[in-house]
Amino acid sequence: MTDSLLNVKGRIFDIQRFSTHDGPGIRTIVFLKGCALRCRWCCNPESQSFDIETMMQNGKPKIMGKDVTVGEVMDEVLQDRPYYRRSGGGLTLSGGESLLQPEFAVTLLKAAKENGINTAIETTGFANIDTIRQFLPYIDTVLMDIKHINSEKHKEFTSQPNERILENARIIASEANKLIIRVPVIPTFNDTVAEIADIAAFAAGLPRVDEIHLLPYHSMGRDKYTGLGRDYLMGDLKSPTNELVAVLIQTAEKYGLKAHIGG
Predict the structure, then answer these.
(1) pTM of the predicted model, to two decimals?
(2) Which of 5, 31, 67, 73 could form an SS bridge with 14, CB 3.0 to 4.6 Å?
(3) SS (H, E, C) 197-220
(4) Span 59-76, average pLDDT
């Protein structure tokens, strides 16, 4: 890769090494700044704005966001290449939403592939399909959220309707190397058997999609909202019980999908 491409800049807020989530094996996750959605339950509210922000943590200010080059990120990613080889892991782009920084994100994925590193992206799928198609040749696994089938309720809880997301899911399923559907299971939003059944039916109808991950709600990001001077809109809602999650897993499996908690 040429120096000019290694010098392409993007804005991130964290790099997490030795993760066993968001793709197979041991992974390095790069969290990009900026998202088009405003999900009420988002556990990374510092990811939503593209702006560099100050968040209070343990009584001390912490700067959330920095500008980095592809080369700087790859220097860190490559440190763990032996672990990727042994575990089948690699690089995952998360956020925020990396689709909103296509030049940086696509170049970073290209650099990873040139170094023989497995790649994944965790995405809302809310972007122009032409932008998404720039990414697909360099991604081994797309982890895409389908949060609700009802567009009105989707917009109420995320700020955006879902028609574009569902249509993009159909195209991604046809053109990506691998697509896994992920569902954040959120009380008062989509935690009923009927709602998960609707999502599972949609996922099962996508070409070459056979896997769905359910991600039970938690409030561990609540303090971040306080640190950013924002209200936490989910109140005191509790995480779904293990019994409910088990029922929802069984519901998804009825549609012929391999269903997992997390992933």
Answers:
(1) 0.96
(2) 31
(3) HHHHHHHHCCCCCCEEEEEECCCC
(4) 97
